Every structure is written in structure tokens, then in C-alpha cells.
User: Fold these one by one.
Assistant:
Number 1:
Amino acid sequence: SQTIHQWPATLVQPVGSPLSLECTVEGTSNPNLYWYRQAAGRGLQLLFYSVGIGQISSEVPQNLSASRPQDRQFILSSKKLLLSDSGFYLCACHRGPTEAFFGQGTRLTVV
Amino acid sequence: QKEVEQNSGPLSVPEGAIASLNCTYSDRGSQSFFWYRQYSGKSPELIMFIYSNGDKEDGRFTAQLNKASQYVSLLIRDSQPSDSATYLCAVNRGTSYDKVIFGPGTSLSVIP
């Protein structure tokens, strides 16, 4: 079965600092991978998705970027964090045609 | 118009009652529909999915889909305090499975 590893679980970073969140998937090959952000009390906002190595689609213009250096690795980055980047970041993988299967999430607080 | 809309709630129901959660979507080409449950501070977990018009039942949960009205709902029978969570409606757009779009979620509180 598929497993998504996402780390760290929590992160407190100062404004202007860089960010790197990593997500790896086990138990499947060539997965569609996603980064979502959830602000407090809000739904999930799709940030990036990737259908293969080096293939990244961005849903919204923002301060973040994503990369997929390996088939089962998806990285979310920022060069300089903003206060508005705070939130709960979730990596997801599609299992079957459409079901999104989530990692445990990273709670980022920018101070 | 937002792609997937839900009432934010909170929706409060007494224990044992039926909770009804609603969702509308804008893309008529959407093919599949999902309900996720998310406890505070946790990642969402899938509880139901539906592809065809009509009802789909799984234990205490029933998903209802009406593509003509672009409407999907989730009924929770015999609600329990452990059902208290945020319920996210999600829609896969079109025939490509590149994107699953989530609604903002409805907060449900089941009162003992």
C-alpha cells in the first residue's frame, strides 16, 4: 500500500528565511503528487501538482516553488518566507484514478 | 464563482440525529466526487466517493450525487460525538485526474 512521508511535522521560521519541505512516497511508481496548503479554519488550496519527474504545474502565483527531482520525491521551497506563508502544508498522492491520499502534514508558522 | 462550495458551518446536531452536509461545484465536466473527514490538526481521510448519480451507502454514511444540479451531499445517520470534525468535499475535474479540488469544508459538531 502507498505511504507518504512528510517532514518536519512542525516548523517555526522567521520572516525572510528559506523553506524546504520534503515529501516521499512508498509503495507506488510514477505517482501524481500534490502540495496543498490549508490556512487556519479554511479548506485545502492546491499549490502545485506534478505528473512526473521535473514536471511541475503551479495553481496560484506565490512565494513558493516546487521541484520533483525523483519519481517519488516532491519538494516545496521558498527563498524568503512571508507571514502569509503560515499554514498547514499537505503532500498528497493519487491512489487509483482520483482519490487523494495525504501525508501527515507540516504545520508552518512564520514569525 | 468558486469551483467547489460548502457552507462553512458550524453545523450542530444532537447525538443520534442525521447530519446533512452539502456541496456544490461549478465544472459540469467533473466526473468523481469525494468526502473527506478532517480532525483538527490532522490530515484529511477519505470516507466516501461517488461517481454516478444517485445514492451510495456505506455504513452510517450516504453520499448523494445529482450531476444535473451540480450538487453532492453527505448524510451521517445516528451521529456520534466522534463524528465531530470538518468535512471536505472534493471534486475531480473532467476526465483527467490531474487535479482534485477541495471545498472549504463544513465544521460539524455532534452534541452528546
Number 2:
Amino acid sequence: DGGITQSPKYLFRKEGQNVTLSCEQNLNHDAMYWYRQDPGQGLRLIYYSQIVNDFQKGDIAEGYSVSREKKESFPLTVTSAQKNPTAFYLCASSAMRNTEAFFGQGTRLTVV
Amino acid sequence: RKEVEQDPGPFNVPEGATVAFNCTYSNSASQSFFWYRQDCRKEPKLLMSVYSSGNEDGRFTAQLNRASQYISLLIRDSKLSDSATYLCVVTFFNAGGTSYGKLTFGQGTILTVHP
């Protein structure tokens, strides 16, 4: 079945640690996105990528990094520079000409 | 001004009611519009695209007003299962016809349908 998979579903991080969230899609979509959602809030764009080996900062990129070495993969690293990383992280993908986006099930990151 | 703005609600309506949500956007170059639904602690899922001529899917009707830069969602005969957060999404194409790739979400409108 085609889809977009995020892992892990739940992640706990100690302060000062970097963690990497996985996002894989087999929809052959060119564009991939990372969003952050805080309780009771909308989605805020962290990074997005339209093509392999290229990506752009979104509205809240500070403290995050990404890579796009393969079309199907777009991992997000939450670095220790991100001061308030506890949130729900959502990965999405879309085809370039039909911009409807499909989401993974999300990763809940908690700093302990 | 936010690029996409929605009335956060919450809207609390009885079963069978008709409810409407509006969403305004600031970028006049915006080209694609969608409504998504998000259930509690779940990922957003596409409810419907919004076309220039307006479109309907069962109890749901979406409309676009480019001149005033807003989109709307009308839900008729509300069901308990319609309780969710409704997100409007705006994106735009570059001159080549492909998307800039930046989907922008409104903050969402919370709907609760009660018996």
C-alpha cells in the first residue's frame, strides 16, 4: 500500500540531546514537508523540500535540520539548539502539480 | 498579518445544524485551496479541495472568493462524527506551473456537534 510513514510514534529526549525523526514515503511524491503542532495550535512549517538534495527553511527552522538524499526520505533532526522541542511533529508529501498533501501519523516528542 | 487566518471557534452546534467556517488568505498569488479535517491527536486528512466554481461533496460545500481572498466550508445536517478541527490550507504555483511547495495552514476551527 502506498503511503507515508513516520517513526517512532513516541519519542522521549533528554535535554541537550539531538534526535532524528524518520519520514519515508512510497508515493513517488517530489515535495516533502515537516510541520510542528503544539497543543491547541495550528501547523507551523519547519522545512520543506521540492527535490532531492534541496530544501528550504519554513517559518520556524531554528534548532532543526533536515536532509533529502533520497526522494522517498526526509528525516528531521531536532537539535539541542531547539529550546522548546516538545510537540507533535507531522511529515507530509505531495506531488508537484497536485499539491494535495498526505500526512504521516506523526511523532510525539517529549523532552524529559 | 498571518498568511492564512481562521476563526478558531469553538463552534458548538446541535446535530442537524448547518455551520459555516471562513478562512482568509493574504497572498493574492495563492492558487490551490483545501480543507482538511483533524481529529484529536491524529494527523490531518484531506476533506476536500476548493475549486473556483465552488464544489460540493455530500453535506459539505466549499467556496472560493478570489476577489475578497477567502474560502468557506459549509456543513449541512451536522453529525456527531463531524466533531473535529477543520483546517484551511493555501498554496500557490510559480510561473512554471509547479508548486512553490509551501503549504500554509490556518490555525484551525474547532467544531463540536452535540446530541
